[in-house]
Amino acid sequence: MRNGNLIQLCSGRYYQGSGVLSHLGGDAVLLGRRALVVADAAVWPKVEARVLRSLEQSGVDTKIWLFSGHCCPGNVRSAAQAGQAYGAELVVGVGGGRALDTAKIAADHMGVRAITVPTSAATCAASAWLAVEYTDDGAFVGNNWTRYPPFAVIAELDFIVRDCPARLYAAGIVDAMAKYPEISYNIQFSNQWEKNLFSQSAQLLSENTYRLLLEHGCETIEQLRAGKITPALEDCVCAALQVTGVISAMACGGKQAAVSHTLYSYFCCVHPELAAGFLHGELVGSTLVYQLAVNGAQKEAQEALNRVLRALGMPTCLEELGLKETSEEAARIFAFLAERMPVETPKELQRLRGESDVLFHGLRDSAGKLQTKRGEAHETGI
Question: End of a domain among 139, 161, 183?
């Protein structure tokens, strides 16, 4: 902000609730009457009739392009070409984060706006200005900052709550929780963090979101499993889908990311099998207690987060991802952090290395024993 950089605050229109899909057609027709629908093939059969009905009732014609795989150049190019050949005046993305990111970038290539219809709360991709790109083979590339954020987000809770695996919701909760510990790290230790009204607001909003999810995350996953929409569940869905995107935007273009999201990039680059086997939020969550430890957070705060992660069924350390602590693995990790964050002083690198036991093995109890995923303690020779 101080240097005149653009601050783009996510989608301008956000609908959330049971039945809000009825707004899709009315918002779409504001952009045009020919829409390319980038539809996640895995969920499209479940939602097709309702999505098309809303568009048709507002006089919007459609061409369906089924998405599978990754948000990658091949998919983006194919979707954009299909839309241009059809003469599409807007793009509607329907599905999970990778389908929505593909829709956003394809719309950018076509010079039109996108509307997103998320079918889970696993990430803030529905509202975020950025999209995460991969190669055609699925290797992580980085963030693509599109010219415009989504025009509107239609968060239909009949899809997100009543017809979505709990694992996706849990991953979204954890990814949203990561913003506060990472922003806290940057405020304390990063010279890239610019102190201004936007970034200070991002800090306050991320703290409020963290406390909300820490308190209600576990109870709401049970409500989601039961298909029961409650005020607490609605708030948590909103936090994962929209508020997290606002936090990211107010933090001035990704400067909120710290250790946990940098390690997510490490997993994608060095261990692509982890990116294939775990959700984004699960990989971020596996290092979130470590992030708190590096921040210097009190042990009670680390344990509170650890309890929530376990209750949500999330991995809490690298060992639970299947990564063993070896000198080679540790050297690769800390070299990656030093390069990508970046780490600029030996003292900062030592702080990261000093909590490596938490990174690889998780928290210990008062007797010095590590906690297993079942909450039981076991002896370790480390």
Answer: 161
Cβ atoms of residues 129 and 146 within 8 Å: yes
Query: Do 194 and 338 belong to one domain?
Result: yes
Contact 128, 245 (CB under 8 A): yes
Longest dimension (CA), the chain: 68
Which residues make up each annotated binding site? Answer: 40, 97-101, 130, 134, 175, 261, 280
**In this predicted structure, what is the pLDDT of residue 343?**
78
Tell me the CA distances in angstroms from 231 to 219, 234, 238, 311, one per residue in order.
12, 5, 11, 21
Question: CA-to-CA distance for 381 and 342, rounded, in angstroms?
Answer: 33
* pLDDT score recorded for residue 346: 86
The pLDDT value recorded for residue 22 is: 96
- Binding residues for glycerol are 175, 261, 280
Please tell me whether residues 239 and 309 are part of one structural domain.
yes
The pair phi, psi for residue 377, each rounded to 5°, is -95, 150
Select from 174, 178, 74, 72 the least CA-distant residue to 132.
72
pLDDT the model gives residue 374 = 40
Q: Identify whether residues 233 and 321 lie together within a single domain.
A: yes
Q: How many Å separate Cα 49 from the centre of its chain?
A: 28
Tokens in use for 192?
Answer: 């890239």
Angle 216-222-225 from CA coordinates, rounded to 5°: 135
Token digits of residue 106? 């394809």
Count CB-CB contacts under 10 A for residue 223.
Answer: 18
For residue 233, the domain's CATH number is: 1.20.1090.10
- Segments of the chain with pLDDT less than 50: 1, 367, 374-382
DSSP label at residue 154: E
Binding-site residue positions for NAD(+): 40, 97-101, 130, 134
Q: Are residues 150 and 172 in the same domain?
A: no
Structure tokens at 35: 């829409």
Q: What is the pLDDT of residues 119-157, one digit of tens each?
A: 999 989 999 888 989 898 888 888 888 988 899 999 999
Q: Which pLDDT value is given to residue 379?
A: 33
Residue 38, domain extent: 11-161
- Sign of the CA dihedral 57, 63, 68, 74? negative
Q: Which of 17, 148, 8 is nearest to 91 (CA)?
A: 148
Specify if 222 maps to a domain: yes
Residue 198 phi/psi, 5-degree rounding, is -65, -50
